Amino acid sequence: MMDRVLDAIAALHLLRPIWCLLLPVVAFIWWRVRRRQTAGEKPPTGIAPHLAEALTVGAGGARRIYAIDGVALALCLTILAAAGPTWSRVPNPLLAQTAPLVVALKVSESMQAPDVPPNRLERARFKILDLVNRRAGARTALIAYAGTAHRVAPLTDDPNILRAMLEALSPEVMPVPGDNATAALAFAREDLASSETPGAILFVLDALNSADAAAFAETDADADGPPVLFLQVAPEGDPGAALSQIPPDRVIRLTADDSDLAQIERAAESAYRAALLGDERLDWDDRGWMLGWLVVPLFLLWFRRGWTMRWALLLAAGLGAGGAAPARADPVDWFFTPDQQGMMAYRNKDFARAGELFLDPMWRAQAMFRAGQYPAAADVYARLDTAAAAFGEGMARTRNREYRPAIAAYERALELQPDFPEAAWNLEVTKAILDFVETAREQSDTGEEAGIGADDVVFDNEAQRGAETQKDYAQEEAQADFQTADQWMRSVDTDMGDFLRQRFLQENAAGEASE
Hints:
By secondary structure, the chain is of the alpha/beta class. It folds into three domains: 17-83 and 287-317, no CATH class; 101-278, 3-Layer(aba) Sandwich (Rossmann fold); 348-436, Serine Threonine Protein Phosphatase 5, Tetratricopeptide repeat, CATH 1.25.40.10. Helices cover 51% and strands 9% of the residues. The chain has 21 helices and ten strands. It has helices at 2-11, 22-39, 49-55, 67-83, 120-134, 159-168, 181-193, 213-221, 241-244, 259-278, 288-299, 310-321, 338-347, 351-357, 361-370, 374-382, 387-399, 403-416, 421-445, 485-491, 496-514, and strands at 13-14, 85-86, 101-106, 140-145, 149-156, 200-205, 228-232, 251-253, 456-459, 469-472. Strands 5-4-3-6-7-8 form a six-stranded mixed beta sheet, with helices on both faces. A two-stranded antiparallel sheet has the order 1-2. A two-stranded antiparallel sheet has the order 9-10. Strand 4 and strand 5 (149-156) form a beta hairpin. Helix 1 runs parallel beside helix 10, helix 5 (120-134) packs antiparallel against helix 6 (159-168) and helix 15 (361-370) packs antiparallel against helix 16.
């Protein structure tokens, strides 16, 4: 909390400071009126003081507060509200409203030690999943490293993707044994460099190799680089020579409760706030409405006897001449626009209601996306002709497993904005997913395992990718249960560990060939 207050104070400024030129005018008027009012309270001349005091009503002391005081204060607050005080940026609806985090997990033989029950690797998995669940809506990427480092999952806010990948990670999946944290650090930096919002890097490990200490020392010296944190999954004791060289505030010990996760969240949020303040492409969030609410109680003082000022009646008459405002069923509508109400629901994580309230199409689609209404969100995005909208449509269709339309949406985003690293990365990942699914479908449709008998009919499969599709006469009665392509892709069940092992082997072989 204190970090947020200090950041807000450092960023505090006025969007329209020219309004402050009216403050001296208000101060001068207040001084003149108050001087005249206080002068009128002097005791009358020509009468003995004790008689004047006895004849004066309310002669218990001079008044300390006058009507002009409340008016001047209300005017000052109104002027400051019009000046546009602000201390934060308006987040981009297509970006997570918390800092992205890249998690680098050490997957080596040492992580299978049972000294942290059930073992270090299992405990690390649990902690990462708890962290992802706490960071609801934030994007998290996963990197696994041993002797080599590999990207397991790109930045995503879907915990189900990370859960499936985490459960499949083991030392048997890694192509080369060892401990190469430097390679994982390079991948993490690349992932954050492709994100529009800088974030943080978290290494989950039991110990750091001394050969990697130099790379992390350079990271600490780089003030503009992302902060690197370490969650040590090991018994209490000496953190090791390499981790001892890391600043103590960067090394977080594993705890039985969530205090270690709270430290990680604070570091990531601090990086996000700093990134927002430095992003000139984002608009400042005008907080003048807060001062406007402070003016409302001051108007209640005008109902006191003797405090009503004549010009206030003229002001009220002028406002009434504008005509009565249309009646609204919900009193909240008197004070907040639909977009403001939608933003309040969005920040309260009531995304379904936010999607109903928003009038702004981008925010409406984003709220629907966060509520899991992927077809509706894709439909709203598709109506907008911007690169950001095409990117959002691609994400919504990917979540709905509409891979081919998603690829078309990402390609559209790159046509509108060629320099769009997130769209290029998602396009590559979606193509890889589609290729993997269709390859698995081909292998199951060729009939290699079952064989094709004499009573089987073999159809050409020219309309779809793959080889041949077979149908047995004995299965004609099951045609009513035939699955569509999308239903089939949803039912594909492959061993994630085998998939990761093959992918890591191919990446390692490609890396050795390039060298």
